[in-house]
Amino acid sequence: MTGTIPLYQRDESLRSHITKVRSVRPVSALSDENKLLFKQATAQDLVVVTAETIFYAQGGGQPYDTGVMRGSTGAEFRVTAVRNAVDGGEILHLGSFAGLTQFVDGEEAVEQVVDDARRTLHSRVHTAGHLVALAVRHMADSMPAPVVELGASHAPESAFVNFEGTIDGSCKDVVQRKVDEFVAAALPVKVYFWTEEELRARCATVPQAVVMPSDGGLVRAVDIEGAGAYPCGGTHVRDTGLVGRVTVKKISRSKGNSRVSYSIE
What we know:
Elements lengths: L4 E2 L9 E11 L5 H4 L10 E5 L1 E2 L13 E5 L4 E9 L6 E7 L11 E6 L1 H23 L9 E8 L2 E7 L7 H13 L4 E6 L1 H7 L16 E6 L3 E4 L14 E9 L2 E8 L1
Parallel strand pairs: 1-4
Antiparallel strand pairs: 2-3, 2-8, 3-7, 5-6, 5-8, 6-7, 9-10, 10-15, 11-12, 12-13, 14-15
Helix pairs in contact: 2-3
């Protein structure tokens, strides 16, 4: 069986889509590795796999989407978590049916509907994280030692970007001003698919955690025009003005690394 096509990677604006059900199975039928993805699952929860999906699967520091799938026979499946399977390329939708009717495996058409407010919030927070990282990179040339992005959390309740290297707490206001400039400029945010060579030439940095396709395929990148690009599989807003107010909360340091925490309003 082929993997699930993640439609949100090509079109982030989709909030509804009709696709086909491939399987419906209890969490207990998953492999042990995939069961660990859903530690919050209850005995009543099921996992639905579809041919394509517009539901974002948790990863890259961004939380998963939630929403519903409605079948042609009247069944409604409430999606409460979404994860990439450990292998095989399937995207697993965890949830439960609203009533007794369930989807028909392998043949029923279903309409996927993503929780728009949740997706939009996560997209704003994710774009804000890129702005924070780019603001730090903008002032990196004037810093006594280099800093390199390590990773990030784009969860609204705990958003931050981690760096290898020391960023002094006095830099907070400088980072804030640059982020404010980026937001005010309403810079376009574009998605591209680049070769590894293009990625390394065009991105502000390529973190070590980025896995390059072994077959030389393309890698998804998000370019904030006029600010910089990063390899990224997450969802974003169309331009930086849609991020809204970003607050750089603090810069903390530990064992040679730095964390820039932020929030949005």
